[in-house]
Amino acid sequence: MRPDEEQDYVAYVTARLPALRRLSYYLCKDEHRADDLVQSTITRLYVHWRRAREARDLHRYVDKMLVRTFLNDQRLGWWTRVWLTDRPRELPCPGGDMETKVVVHDALAQVPPRQRVVLVLRFLCDLPVTEVAELLGCSAGNVKSQTARGLARLRELLDLREFTVEEVGEHGSR
Amino acid sequence: MDRGEWHGSTRDHAVLGLLRDVEPSAGGSVDIGRAMRAGRRRVRRRRVAVAVAAAAATALAVFLPSLPWTRPAPPATPASQLVQDGQAFDAAAPAFLVGSAGGFTPDSYETGRYRQVIRLRSTDPASRATAVITMYAPGRQPSLPDGEPAPPVNDRPARWIPRGLAWEWAPGAWGTVALEDQTEDRDRAHRVAQSVLPRRGAPVSIPFTVDPAAIGAGRRLIGVVTSYPNDQVTTRVSVKYGTHDLAGDWIEVGVRQPRPSTAPNADLSSTPAAISASEVLLLPAGKPYAIFARGGDGPARRTLATAVTVNAGSLNT
How far is A88 from chain B (nearest CA, A)? Predict the structure, then answer.
């Protein structure tokens, strides 16, 4: 890569890093995995920077890259992956209604990965169904059904924690 | 956003909206410099690999024909050695080697005496396109294809069929390629067919045993289903039992990767289980595999699933 291209890359990644870390954190169960995902994504972005720069919407291109990296990672190595359990809970959201947010994030982390991606893209990144479908390479109908299933699972998980949706609404509506 | 598209209530939106102002802690371990160094290494490796491949291809093209020790590739296994008694494959061993071609790669292989089925998936992770190759033992194809002639496949006669191709892989023995969820793409179908070579494989290694008493009267092994390794990990191995090879009364039992979303809804022989109308899935605590049984009736599925003993040493657990 030429020096001027590297400068562009560094400037872009520096500016987008907070947004990428936030998106990654929504998708992953903890901050360490979220950071690993961002690290993998920006490494891939470096390799494909010339092609990426020609994309019609660079932000969308990079978000797509991150989501794909996340979904690919979910598919790999299930016999061999080692999961550490009983880790201390991470509290990445100081201030505000911290406990409520941790509970919701925990529940979201337990929603199956593809449904989680759809919920995050639709409700936290505010993407319309058609764009989520394009980003995931599936039909709009599939996105809608994944949304419905993901929301059902999320409600179920919150109920299991004896945490009602009404309480969340009262405490944390923006 | 069109709220009608949401499929979620305002309440759902409010719940998830809570996370909008969540910020991962400052700093973190993301390092742009490290990404650039890793990216440079990756680019260099790619360039070297491309250069080596190009040089090797050139060298081979120039020198290979003249080398005295050059031998042609091992020939395909003659059909007479692939079939027993002239008309059946080994029920536990693959009889064909299938490569990636036409944008597809093998996903699973189902052996059988009279037909062997290879399911393919797209090499593009974003695509859901699939294809199925069905290879029949001599004389076992349901009907002879009568479509228009197609270019030969590995020098064997071929004919077009709806959404695919049929070819006579050995005298009197036909195979088909069907592209699913696709419009007609003859070129892709033909390339997939070209990637199928008759080549006897070793019997599939089964990482579990089944108590014979649980298999059911009159049933015998009719096939083995195995997923192709994905990053060197095989995610599914199962055996199928039936009273007849091509009959619909089969029952299947095996081990596979449990989906994270699967939640147990019952207990079977003190093991958490997810039981649905079509499947019994045992989820042994602390194990990275699930035992499943499909086909047959409910009681038979339960009996068979609980009769499996996984050989711990054969799985990388």
Answer: 15
Q: What is the pLDDT of residue A68?
A: 84
Instruction: Count contacts between A and B (CB, < 8 Å).
Output: 171
Query: With contacts defined as CB-CB under 8 Å, which chain B residues touch A46?
Result: 35-36, 38-40
B231–chain A Cβ distance below 8 A for any pair: yes
Q: What are phi and psi of B15, to 5 degrees?
A: -60, -50
CATH number of the domain at A3-80, please? 1.10.1740
**Nearest one of A76, A79, A62 to A113, comparing CA atoms:** A76
ipTM of the assembly? Answer: 0.73
CATH T-level topology, domain A98-172:
Arc Repressor Mutant, subunit A (1.10.10)
Q: Does B47 touch chain A (CB under 8 A)?
A: no
B314 touches chain A (CB under 8 A): no
CB B141 within 8 A of CB B174: yes
Q: Does B66 touch chain A (CB under 8 A)?
A: no
Are B290 and B275 in contact, with CB atoms under 8 Å apart? Answer: no
pLDDT of A127 strictly over 60:
yes
Which of B1, B6, B18 best tests the A interface by mutation, with the highest count of A CBs <10 A?
A: B18
Q: Please check the confidence at residue B261 and state whether its pLDDT lies above 90.
A: no
What percent of chain B is predicted at pLDDT more than 70? 75
Outline where DSSP puts E strands in B74-143: 96-98, 104-110, 115-122, 130-136
For position A167, what pLDDT does the model report? 35
How far out from the chain centre does Cα A58 lie? 17
Instruction: Answer whether B257's CB lies under 8 Å from B229's CB.
Output: no
Q: How far apart are CA A84 and CA A113, in angstroms?
A: 19
Q: Does the distance separating the beta carbons of B257 and A147 come in below 8 Å?
A: no
The domain spans of chain A are 3-80, 98-172
φ, ψ at B288 (rounded to 5°): -85, 20
Dihedrals φ, ψ of A65, to 5°?
-60, -40
Strands, E assignment, B162-219: 164-170, 173-180, 196-198, 208-210
Cross-chain residue pair A137–B31, CB shorter than 8 Å: no
pLDDT band at B80; cut points 50, 70, 90 = low
- Do residues B249 and B242 lie in contact, with contact meaning Cβ atoms separated by under 8 Å? yes
Q: Inter-chain contact A100–B18, Cβ cutoff 8 Å?
A: yes
Q: What is the pTM of this model?
A: 0.50
Q: Tell me whether B100 touches chain A (CB under 8 Å).
A: no
